[in-house]
Each structure stands twice: as C-alpha cells, then as structure tokens.
Write a structure and sequence with these properties.
By secondary structure, the chain is α/β, with parallel strands linked by helices. The protein has helices at 17-24, 37-44, 55-60, 96-108, 125-138, 183-194, 207-237, 242-250, 271-282, 288-297, 299-314, 342-348, 399-405; strands spanning 7-11, 29-33, 64-67, 78-81, 114-117, 141-142, 152-157, 176-180, 201-203, 322-326, 355-359, 371-373, 382-387, 406-414, 426-427. The strands form two sheets. Strands 1, 2, 3, 4, 5, 6, 7, 8 and 9 form a nine-stranded mixed beta sheet that branches.
Length: 428
C-alpha cells in the first residue's frame, strides 16, 4: 500500500479516537466512525460533546469526515480501533464492544487491509482472541510472514497513551509503541504514525509485549496511588500530617510523587483487572495488583467513615443534611464522570436522605436521581463539604468562600490538599 493510497477509518471517536482522527485528518483521507448517532451528528457540526476540542481544531482537519454508516467504511483500507475495554460486574474484561466493532470491520474488510488496535488490552488478546475472531467473521486470514499479502489482512497493535485534559502531553509529543506479527505491517504502521508523531516510535518485538507494556503503565500508577493511600491511613492513625511527610520525602530525587485520593475513570482502575485476568489464566494469582485495587476501591468508604465519626463528635445530624461535593469528574480538568469514585461516596450517604449538591462547572448534565447539579453556592448552607476534584477553574475559589458557604457547625473534607489547612476538618 502506498502512503498516498491510505484511507483511514478511526473506529470509535471518543476520548481517544477523536484526537487521533483530528490529527490524521490533517494528513490522510480519514473517516471518524462511531455507532453513537448523537456524537456523530455533533462531530459533523464540529462540536465535541466531551469539550476537549474546539471548532478551530476541527477546521484544521481538512481531510476528516464523520459517519455512523457502515457503507462509508467500504473504501477504507486502514482501520484504527479505539473502542472501550471495560470490566463487567465480576471485574473481568468485558469484550462485547470490541467484538461488535470487529464484526463491523469484518463486513468491509478486504485482503491487504490493516487493522490497528489502540484500545488497552491484556497480553494475548489480539493474537489469541481477536485475530481468530476476525478470521472467522471475515473469512479472510491474517497475514503471516510467508503468506501472499493479496489474500490476507494485516494486524497491528499500538496502545494509546494520551491523557485527556492534559495539554502538555499530546499525540505529537508522546512516544508511541508500535507492534505487529508481520514485518510489512509494522513498516506500514511506522510510515503512518510518523506522519503525525514527532516523538519516538518504539518498535517492539511482538504484539504481546506492546499489550503488556500499556497495561502495566496504568497498573503501576494504581499500585503507587494505593501505596500512598495506605501511607495516609497509617499517618492518620499516628496523627502525622501526610502532606507534610510526602513533601519531605519528595525532596529525595528518586521518591515518586503521588498523592492519596480516589482512583476512578476507565483506565487506571480497570486495567489491573485485565492483567490479573490473564495472569489467573496462566496459573498465577497476582497479589499486589488486586490488593492495590482493593485499597483504592475502598477509599470512598474510608472518607465516608471519617465523616460519620466526626459528625458524631461534632454532634452534626446528617439526616436530611446538606452535602456539597465540589468537583465530581473522575479527575481534574475533564468532563468525564464515568466511574468517578465521588458517586460511590454519594451512594453511601443514601440512608441519611441527605440533599446532595454537586458543584462542577465541567459537568453540563447529570442523569442521576436525587442529585442537584448547581451553579451557585449558598452562604451558610452546607453541613458537609467535600472538595473532591482540584480543577484548574477552582483555583479561584478561596478557602474563605468555602468557610462562608459552610454552616457554623459543619465538616469540610479536603481530598486534594487544596484548601487552607486552618479551615479544613479532614484531609487524607
Ligand atoms: N480515555 C483515556 O484516557 C484513555 C487513554 C489511553 C487509552 N485508553 C483506552 O482507549 C480505549 C477507548 O477509550 P475512550 O476513553 O476513548 O472511550 P470512549 O468511550 O470515550 O470512546 C469510545 C467510542 O467508541 C464508540 N463505540 C462503541 N462501540 C462501537 C462500535 N461497535 N463501533 C463504533 N464505535 C463504537 C462509543 O460510542 C464511543 O464514542 C479504551 O481501551 C481505553 O482503555 C483510554
């Protein structure tokens, strides 16, 4: 395939797929494909419902179109798959969306086409599960080194590392891992990605290495945060200020800078389960991975228990009280609320029939009963305030304002070390 013959399709234009589509759309004939009709309608109007990109960025992508129609995929010859890889209720990989996207590709796949997966996988998912699935559904075989390419399709895996909300690290400047089970496919991937990436392209020897590398990046973060969460529990028992301990320890060059807190979203809190699933299949029961997950998942309960304990000491009746959550997305500076642990904390207050107010200008809409998304904060009104997400836009909120909106006898919990210590009752 010559570089000027490439017709790209980005399958799934969400947090990962859209920036890729926008970037490739500056260089190649690119189609952003998604089954979400509402999303596609907005994207056609140059509107990103996730609020990550402005119209300006769409205008720069002159070769990019969007569609939810299968027939528009027919002339595509490179498919880049950016589909979610969540877990199910049993905390095992839920591959339904990946399978359904592969079925769509199979309907239009031709010999010589290249499929590149960018979603986060466990080691072996591409080669042991998806290649056979695609071969069966498309009736075309995957190209092994000695096969004649005109009868086979190619496969590649290149995990995505972008970090929504982070303006410093972007597609152009993040080193990108590329892998394939076929030399020609790998060289084609190199040509394609080098058109949009200024950073290093890191070729690894197998797809499994690339899959494993991605899944451990997020798992390492999860474990590190779990460790800091555990430190903060220990220091609370010992009545030592965790923030001060961390600052002191961080003065050593090789102490890793992590803060305690909630781990939500659909990557860091999910990917360790992908790795542990594969590890269990291989006969090894991971220990640290799942312990880290447990510690991080229990953080909302820990925060809740601390609030309850203090309410008893301060004689604050939490029944029908006013609870204010400042920041409810799963992390700073994004609008994404998926798997935000703030909602786990809120659920724990259910039995108190508390009035729950959420103040988060990043969130435009919340489809949850019994929650009030507010734009204005009331003076002397809240019994409990949890400062949960440290968005940049909150930097303007002064501690004095937090004090002003809380009742005289109230609880202020700062999960982010963002407020003045003097006005705060609880911190991690
Ligand atoms: N969001 C991140 O920060 C991030 C970073 C790196 C890697 N990842 C990984 O990238 C993958 C995608 O994550 P995301 O955050 O972009 O998800 P997302 O939910 O934001 O976007 C996925 C898109 O795929 C669409 N989709 C679902 N099924 C489809 C199908 N059959 N055909 C076409 N479109 C379909 C959805 O409508 C959605 O628009 C996941 O594996 C994730 O772990 C995410």
């Amino acid at each position: 395939m010559r570089i000027n013959q490439i017709k790209l399709a980005i399958i799934g234009v969400g947090y990962v797929g859209l920036p890729i589509a926008l970037k490739f759309g500056q260089v190649f004939d690119t189609l952003g494909f998604d089954i979400d009709k509402f999303k596609i309608k907005n994207l056609k109007n140059k509107q990103d419902i996730n609020k990550e990109f402005t119209k300006k960025e769409f205008i720069k992508s002159k070769k990019l179109l969007f569609s939810d129609k299968l027939q528009d995929l027919k002339d595509r010859n490179v498919f880049i798959v950016c589909i979610p890889t969540p877990i199910n209720k049993k905390k095992e990989p839920d591959l339904d969306l990946i399978y359904s996207s592969c079925k769509i590709i199979c309907k239009v796949l031709k010999p010589k086409d290249l499929i590149i997966f960018e979603s986060t996988f466990y080691p072996g998912l591409t080669e042991e599960v998806l290649i056979p699935f695609i071969e069966k559904n498309s009736q075309i075989n995957n190209a092994k080194e000695k096969n004649k390419p005109n009868k086979h399709f190619y496969i590649g895996y290149s995990p995505e590392r972008i970090n929504p909300g982070d303006k410093k690290h972007n597609i152009e400047n993040i080193n990108k891992i590329i892998s394939s089970n076929n030399k020609y496919a790998l060289s084609l991937m190199k040509k394609i990605y080098s058109k949009i990436i200024n950073a290093q392209l890191i070729e690894v020897s197998s797809i499994k290495v690339a899959e494993a590398a991605k899944v451990i990046e997020n798992t390492q973060r999860d474990i590190n945060i779990a460790l800091i969460n555990e430190f903060s529990q220990i220091f609370k028992q010992l009545k030592i200020d965790t923030e001060e301990v961390l600052k002191a320890a961080e003065s050593k060059w090789n102490f890793l800078k992590f803060k305690p807190g909630f781990v939500g979203g659909h990557c860091i809190g999910v990917d360790p389960y992908y790795l542990s699933h594969k590890s269990l299949q291989s006969g090894y029961k991971p220990k640290i991975l799942l312990t880290g997950r447990k510690i991080n998942d229990q953080m909302p309960l820990r925060v809740f228990n601390e609030i309850i304990a203090l309410s008893k000491i301060k004689k604050i009746n939490l029944y029908k009280s006013n609870l204010l959550i400042i920041g409810a997305t799963f992390k700073e500076n994004v609008s994404d609320t998926r798997n935000s642990k703030v909602f786990d904390l809120i659920k724990l207050f259910k039995k108190y029939h508390a009035n729950i107010y959420i103040y988060d200008p990043h969130i435009k809409y919340l489809n949850l009963k019994n929650l009030k998304l507010i734009n204005n904060l009331k003076s002397n009104y809240y019994d409990v305030i949890v400062y949960a997400v440290d968005h940049k836009i909150f930097k303007k909120i002064k501690s004095s304002k937090i004090k002003e909106i809380s009742k005289d006898n109230s609880i202020i919990y700062d999960l982010k070390y963002a407020l003045d210590k003097k006005i705060v009752d609880l911190r991690l």
